Amino acid sequence: MVAFIVKRVIQACIVMVIVSCIAFAVKYSFGDPTRDMLGMSASAEARAELRTQLGLDKPVFEQWIVFVGNVLRGNLGDSYFYREPAMDVILSRLPATVELVCMATLIIVCVAIPAGVYVACNPSSLISKTIMLISMLGVSIPVFLTSMFLIYVFSIQLNLFPSFGRGEPVEILGFWTTNFTTFSNFLHILLPSLALSSIMFPLFVRITRSDMKEALTSEYVRYAQAKGLSRKRIVWRHAFRNTLLPLVTIGGVQVGTMVAFTILTESVFQWQGLGYMFIEAVSRADTGLLVAYLLFTSFIFVTINTLVDIIYTFIDPTITIKGN
Amino acid sequence: MRAIHLFWNSAFIKALRSDTVASLSAVILLFLIFLALFAPLLSPHTPYDLSTIDILDSNMPPAWDAKGSVHFLLGTDNQGRDVLSSVLYGLRLSVIIGLGAVVVQVVLGVTLGLIAGYKEGMIGALIMRIADIELSFSTYIIAIFSGAIIQASCGIEYYNTIAMPLLIGIIGISEWPQYARTVRAKVLSEKKKEYVEAARVIGLRPLHIMWKHILPNSLSPVLVICTVQVANAVMSEAALSFLGLGMPPTQPSLGSLIKDGFHYFFSGSWWIITFPSLALILLIVSINSLGDFVRDYLNPRKI
Amino acid sequence: MKLLEVKELSIAFGKPEGNHLTAVDAISFSVDKGERLGIVGESGAGKSITGFSILNLLAKPGFIAGGNIFFKGRDLTKLSEDEMRTIRGNEISMIFQDPMVTLNPVLTIGEQIIEVILAHKDVSYDVARTMAIDALRKVYIPSPEQRLQQYPHEFSGGMRQRIIIAIALVTSPQLIIADEPTTALDVTIQAEIMQLLLHLCEVEKMSLILVTHDLGVVSQVTQQIAVMYAGTIVEMGATESIVLNPSHPYTKGLLNSLPEKADKKTGRLHQISGTMPSLAEIPKGCPFYDRCGVREDICKKKRPLLEKYNDVLMACFVR
């Protein structure tokens, strides 16, 4: 068990080292920080002085060590556009994205998974066929079109929800801005999170359905029936409990995909989160912020993937014993 | 003639013909590919030729609208470009990039998968670790990051000039691990079989064994992944273009057309965005449902 | 009144209204209170699905195509799913074939025993837990309190089958249906499990239907035997009569193929030549015709019915 965790953490560190190399390469081979800091008109001497000051005249490997050291201390460099530490820019945008992803996850857990279970239990009902049709279409419609469609129907035609932005998020605990404290803010988050969840919805319906189908035809479910248990208990406690494992693993892997899709969703809804910041940084050629975003999101991915693997060992009783 | 007859009566086509949804998708897909192939001949205007565009024609609704014109069946965009022609050319670009990216994926994935499967040990392990890392990140994010980094470092003008091959490359590179995993697994299981052993005993070279014996046996899962991946590649391209990391406005793919149309959507010019969107959705839906069919056909046991 | 009385039971696969194949053809048998019946036959004879059909647990597309199953006078084929549920695991328990796949891998043993008590008995969780511990003790699982918290994979196959027996017994059912309960186990453990089952049935005065292909096992455990072949019962009667003096050519063949009857000189086992006809090609006449050593012309044309012969029932024209 401990050996497994250590192994996973080492793997995660290796991945982060690779990412830091890429980030370092991008930062120091494509952007010239002296130009960014002093402007185009600065003299060659002033630049050279600054280069020494910044340690840019040192060997590449030493520069990389300095870079990694800074990153480990939470210093991801500066944003050329905002002229402030990139980490601060990221942290100010983080709550918006985290809340969006959480809300979307909540929708998936509360809607897609029960829908998958329902389809597996009643494969021939009309509702099941509708769910499968929706999920088939969901796979095929890009998220930015879903987003626009939602805006068109629910904001423009029905005027139920605001069409873009975060509204006026409330600051709580001194560092976090939230959309969950007031009703009007909550309305703002609904459409974007619905759009974001639409990407994962089909996948989760399909996985839940096929795993449930397999579980429902298994010998232990037949045995549970022979024990005279209620249908509810058989479906949720016996069959569903066995599909939880693959769902958690896939869920963990899909967090990555979700982050990718926040970029698209946020840019349609002009949701002031990390994804929107990223697209702005791209259009402003703000390499400093881009690199910081790359490092930050990679770190989040790797952490979540590692955690999921570790959690997996906790919920799968058959793995626990192997580690011992 | 005989070849057509044989093809029409082959088991695959027979199965396809008996499946309504799949055959409908096939017809739609063939139609879209036809449109894409012959876009330069079919489109009434050339969207790339600035001299034919008149700003006075801008923002015209489709022909069936009272304000529309028969010259522009599906209306015009804000610069006076014919939407129908843009969609046809855009479709062409999307299909080319989608297919091109899949070719890159297959070549990379199958080659690396064969190597990883045949040469277990250091090289194989290294390839699979890279694949794992890529898969643990989302393929989308790899494509978006690569696009963003390249655009930020080369500047947008240069990026635009190399956009098409670049997109093919980016999408190709971000999706190869799936193929590599499948092929490697297949190679490992085929390697144990007697015919490979026999081939080795009679002294055939490893490359020959891989190429002539193992590869043909690994092709059906690769084909299944391919069909779905074409749809994914088209979607990735659309997403990148939508974010401004894809095809430039002067040479718009369906994604860039949607991006442009998005700005005018709220002011009432719905046709600028609707037609490229419909083309994109139709393209992806037909590929996906055909992909489902191919998967069921080649592997009927799997749900 | 018999405890269980199966009358003219037919089981088929397919669509009830459309195409279907008959797997069990109008069989009748009964089990008295405290009696042990063995249903014997080779795989595909329809013995397992007969067991499952009693609890209405046929896997799709199987269904009961006709006949009645009376349990304490109630016709189980007429009960609703809810009523059936109060009988399953409560009045009639089942023991499945392969203990490695029968228990749910992600739930503790304790939960899997306690849930069946709570489903059927009106007792508190604590009482149910005590009952579970007692049941585990009865099947000789050491330190049952600690074992309750463990998962199935922490037990060997033999231990798991003991747990399954404990689950079957814990609600004090009147009848246990055991479907090949020892087939999946190591040979060394088979006898041990069978002895345990026999012992518990005797102590608790429970009836048992033992479904197996092993005539040797059946002869040691049961009082009655029904021999099935291709969906029909070909011979039925008291264990002694059948084992010591088999009447039907198929039963004779089965007994002859036991290891004890192997050829003294060569050490080779006897076997019945040929294979059982598949569901789709069961002949109109006697299903055993193709493999029978004493067949006559009538056997091909007419199906023999189960009729009294000496002190057993037998379906054979050649007497």
Main beta sheet of chain A: 2 strands, antiparallel
How many structural domains in the coordinates of chain B?
A: 1
- Compute the gyration radius of chain A: what is it? 24 Å
What gross morphology of chain A would you assign? Answer: globular
Strand order, largest beta sheet of chain A:
1-2
Which secondary-structure class do the elements of chain B indicate? mainly alpha
| Poorly predicted runs of 5 or more residues of chain A | 320-324
SSE succession of chain A: HHHHEEHHHEEHHHHHH
The number of helical runs of chain B is 13
- Give the fraction of residues assigned to helices of chain A: over 70%
Q: What oligomeric state do these chains adopt?
A: heterotrimer
Annotation, overall tally of beta strands of chain A: 4
Query: What is the architecture of chain B at the second tier of CATH?
Result: Orthogonal Bundle
Fraction of helical residues of chain B = over 70%
CATH architecture of one domain in chain A: Orthogonal Bundle
Shape of chain B: globular
Beta percentage of chain B is under 5%
CATH fold name of chain B, please? MetI-like fold
Offer a few descriptive terms.
heterotrimer, B: 303 residues, mainly alpha, MetI-like fold, 13 helices, globular, C: 319 residues, alpha/beta, Rossmann fold, 2 domains, eight-stranded mixed beta sheet, four-stranded antiparallel beta sheet
Indicate the topology.
The complex is a heterotrimer of chains A (324), B (303) and C (319).
Chain A: H1 2-30, H2 33-38, H3 44-54, H4 60-72, E1 78-79, E2 84-85, H5 86-121, H6 126-140, H7 143-157, E3 170-172, E4 176-178, H8 183-216, H9 219-226, H10 231-269, H11 274-283, H12 287-315, H13 317-323
Antiparallel strand pairs in A: 1-2, 3-4
Chain B: H1 2-8, H2 11-18, H3 20-37, H4 39-42, H5 83-118, H6 122-136, H7 139-154, H8 156-161, H9 163-191, H10 194-201, H11 206-242, H12 254-265, H13 270-298
Chain C: E1 4-14, E2 20-31, E3 36-40, H1 47-54, E4 62-71, E5 74-75, H2 81-87, E6 92-95, H3 99-102, H4 109-120, H5 125-138, H6 144-147, H7 157-169, E7 175-179, H8 187-204, E8 207-212, H9 215-221, E9 224-229, E10 232-238, H10 239-244, H11 249-256, H12 297-301, E11 307-309, E12 312-314
Parallel strand pairs in C: 3-8, 3-9, 6-7, 7-8
Antiparallel strand pairs in C: 1-2, 1-4, 4-5, 9-10, 10-12, 11-12
Helix pairs in contact in C: 4-5, 5-7, 7-8
